[in-house]
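Think of the structure tokens as a kind of shorthand, similar to the way a musician reads notation: each symbol stands for something richer, in this case the local conformation of the backbone. In the example below we present two proteins back to back. Begin with the first one, reading the sequence and then the tokens, and try to describe in your own words what changes along the chain.
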Amino acid sequence: MTLMAKAMQECPSSGILWAEAIFMEARPQRKTKCVDALKRCEHDPHVLLAASMLFWSERKISKARSWFHRTVKIDPDIGDAWAYFYKFEQIHGSEEQQQEVFKHCVNAEPHHGEKWATVSKNIENWRLKTGEILPLCAKSLEIPT
């Protein structure tokens, strides 16, 4: 926590740091940290993804879905957002909603994201296209708690 506080002092508008800080907090303080993060960097896709996952962990399905939409709309190049959104729809959505996320992801052809890069740059997956990487990446993700 002290290292995170120091990092956030040096980079106060880093969306990646804010997103990580949200889930480092104890469950009761996460919402407050999320509000702070949205105030600091409201248009950062990493913060929006963290907010989506926060709503998902609180079982607020419709809010989570709308925040996932906002996230992928702001920066469609982040594969992690697409993978979490796809996994979310696999669990809580209909077949139609899953296919819609899948189709939009394939059209966006994302290349960034910590989890996405791990799967897409794996030597075993070197020939795979976006449509094949998405299910693999989504399968490797944990459901937020």
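Once you have a description of the first chain, move to the second and do the same.
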Amino acid sequence: METFAFALSVTGPIFLTLLIGYGLARAGLLSESFVDDASRLVFLITLPVLLFIKIFNAESALADEWPLLLAATLGTLVSLPLAWLMARPLEYGDRSAFIQGAFRGNLGIIGLAWAAKAYGNTGLAQAALLMAVVTMIYNLAAVSLFAAYSQSQAFHWRRLLKDIAQNPLIIAIVMALLARQLELVFPAMLLQTGDYLASITLPLALLCIGASLDFSLLRRSSLSAFGASAFKLLIVPVVLLAFGWLLDLPAQSMGVLFLMAAAPTATVSFIMARAMGGNSQLAANIVALSTLLSVVTASVGLALLNSVV
């Protein structure tokens, strides 16, 4: 019972914050323009600052986290062909949205928030490194999928590499690692300012995600949306945890690995589906459904994990 209470204390506040954002938007207190501006602020400024500060101040070194990063990489690479096989019975035009929804998690906000709530700054630093590695795989796989299943878009390596190189989150993580390697010392006032900016990141981002959700889409959810959500919330965590077990990860690393793997489908999957000619309706259904169900699957999964590790 105590393990489930701990798990619910991790996932519950995050989910309630999403619901508050959803309610405020429906009440007209969070306008669409505010959500757009706040989301841009988080992505370009506050979230990169948070990642930089937490990685720069982390006690563990990057070399200490290679088993965690390897487990996440191998698990993600194995999950991709499994999702592709599961999508084979679907209509050709639906496969890209299904596959991306089945593997692409909301690591940057919900995954980080869960890790920070469960394990504090050390867990957040581990999650940030994991996110940097896995996000590159996500981008490569997502663009390739939509290029393969779309008649209107083509895959371009140059564009993909440019997107990765210009991603503010990846830039912040790389800069933090370089700063640690060079043993740079920053003025306390500058670090305190960074803490102020970082502190607003997760609450603001969660409110924006909640405001962007449209649970009315659940009425039009199909078996495909349920299948992709089940794969994302159940199969992906099991696959990644299997690699974590094989690599003999310590308890906290296993917890961080699970929480990042159990995060619901990222909202960017809907944006990419719409921009690249995929089934955006299916993508939106997967985002809404996986977000709603993740509070249950993540809570139960974390409780089970804590009882055996």
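Compare your description with these statements about the second chain. The radius of gyration is 19 Å.
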